[in-house]
Every structure is written in C-alpha cells, then in structure tokens.
C-alpha cells in the first residue's frame, strides 16, 4: 500500500508545539503534503529541519509569515518544482510538486478569497491559471505513463454535502456558484477524480476543517475543502480514504485534519 496524506497545518511552528511532531512519528504515510506552513525553512524547529525519515521540499512564500507549502516523502524525489509557471503566483508559497517513480505528487494551497475584495479577485486569477496547469499536467503525465495526485487545501466546498451549513454560505467565499462550477470543470472536463468522495459518495462530509469559533468541532459543523485529486488510473487503485479527525477539540493541532488515501499500486 502507498499512503498519501494532505494537511493544512495552520502554521507549522504552532502545530509542532501542539502535536504535529508526535503525529509525524506515528503516521504510516509515504508522502505528506503540507499547506499554510507560514515559515521559512531556517525558522523551523530543529526536529523539522533535521528529519531523518523524510525527504523534504519546502516552498515558502515571498510574503513572510503567509501561505507556504511543502512535501515530505519517504523516498527521495527524482524531481521537484516550486510553482506552476505563473508570473504572479510562483513565489507565493502555494504550489510545489515532486516526481517519484511513476507518480507526480503536488501540494496546493489555493487562496481562500473574500467576497467583494481583492482577495477574491486574486483567487479567481489563481483558479484561471491553475486550471490550465492541471490540464497540461494531466496531458504530460499521460504521455509519460505517470499518475498524478494533487493534494491540498482547495478552499472550495464542491457540493452541499461538503459543508454542514451550506444554506447560510451560498454567498460566502468557498461555496460561491462560480467556485463550485470551477471545481466541477476540474473533475468533469479535465478528468481528475476526488477519491474521498468516490469512496464516500453518500456521506455528509467527511469534513476536514472546523472553525475554532464556538463549538464547530464538537458539533461537526465543518467544511470539506481538503482534497486529494488524482488521475483516473491511480484513482481506480484507491482502496481507502479517510479524515484523521482528532478525538477531542483539545487534541487538535490545526483547524484542519489530515486527509489520507491508500493506494494498492500492485493491482492491475
């Protein structure tokens, strides 16, 4: 089995103090995609700078203390690339990809947006450019006989089943009709597969983000915005996908939970 995990750490230095390091010691993941790292590599705790069991590729943002993505892999990558060829976004700490034998894995932190502000305009520009990249990435992978997994915080709940209070959020960033339509294009036009939803077609959620406000976590009033989007070939080999939800609010080390998928790559 090959296990791939995606998690928005909501500030890796803070998460390291709350339980991230302990989780890293026990996880059986082969690849971990991190988002919202919000740290330069030299600012990382020693335990994260000197990982003995992992090969790490860090992609911090040029804006200090913002965004930042990374990929940790048990196996040394044969190639790593920061950004996707965007003049605007390649230094924003929002995308990194690595190549492993027969597989490309990417970590994505799509802008969250805010309706009626420049942040939403930025999100829409990112989405437009990134859709082109996703299309080209899949074409290159097919030509090379490779599979692709794009993990990350996509900051869009695709369907009503992907957030608890969908009726109240129809005009909110992350559930706007145009954002949901864009994600539909990723799936239906470009041909990626949402492996968690494929294995849990009729489930509410499983949610991967809960606000720290109120009792959102205790009431499971969350959003499913963290996805593992894959090419169809490897999607067919996904045998398990789940959210590693903490047992209690006190045990959370991020406002997101890790999302893990397992692939049986020995199957034909």
Low-confidence stretches: none
Largest sheet: 6 strands, mixed
Mean pLDDT: 96
Distance between the termini: 14 Å
Shape: globular
What is the chain-wise order of helices and strands?
EHHEHEEEEEHEHEHEHEE
Beta-strand residue fraction? 15-25%
CATH topology: Deoxyribonuclease I, Chain A
CATH class: Alpha Beta
What do these coordinates show?
With 268 residues, the protein is an alpha+beta fold. The protein has a single domain, classed as Deoxyribonuclease I, Chain A, CATH 3.60.10. The chain is built from 7 helices and 12 strands. It has helices at residues 12-18, 20-26, 46-49, 118-144, 177-188, 195-199, 232-235, and strands at residues 2-8, 31-35, 55-59, 69-73, 79-82, 95-100, 103-109, 147-153, 193-194, 226-230, 238-243, 259-263. A hairpin with a 2-residue loop joins strand 6 (95-100) and strand 7 (103-109). The radius of gyration is 17 Å and the shape is globular. The chain starts with a strand and ends in a 5-residue tail after the last strand. The model has no long low-confidence stretch (mean pLDDT 96).
């Amino acid at each position: 089995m090959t296990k791939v995990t995606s998690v928005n750490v909501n500030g890796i230095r803070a998460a390291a103090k709350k339980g991230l390091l302990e989780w890293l010691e026990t996880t059986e993941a082969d690849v971990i995609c991190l988002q919202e790292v919000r740290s330069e590599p030299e600012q990382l705790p020693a335990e994260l700078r000197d990982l003995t069991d992992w090969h790490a590729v860090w992609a911090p943002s040029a804006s200090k203390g913002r965004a930042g993505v990374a990929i940790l892999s048990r196996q040394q990558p044969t190639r790593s690339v920061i950004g996707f060829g965007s003049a605007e976004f390649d230094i924003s700490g929002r995308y990194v990809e690595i190549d492993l034998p027969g597989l490309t894995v990417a970590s994505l932190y799509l802008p969250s947006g805010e309706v009626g502000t420049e942040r939403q305009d930025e999100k829409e520009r990112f989405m437009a450019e990134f859709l082109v990249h996703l299309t080209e990435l899949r074409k290159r992978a097919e030509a090379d006989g490779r599979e692709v997994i794009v993990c990350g915080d996509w900051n869009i709940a695709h369907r009503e089943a992907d957030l608890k209070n969908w009726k109240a959020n129809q005009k909110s960033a992350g559930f706007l009709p145009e954002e949901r339509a864009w994600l539909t294009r990723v799936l239906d036009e470009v041909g990626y597969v949402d492996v968690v939803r494929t294995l849990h077609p009729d489930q509410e959620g499983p949610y991967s983000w809960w606000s720290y406000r109120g009792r959102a976590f205790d009431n499971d009033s969350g959003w499913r915005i963290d996805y593992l989007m894959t090419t169809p070939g490897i999607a067919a080999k996904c045998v398990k996908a789940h959210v590693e939800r903490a047992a209690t609010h006190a045990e959370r080390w991020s406002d997101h939970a890790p999302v893990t998928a397992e692939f049986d790559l020995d199957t034909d």
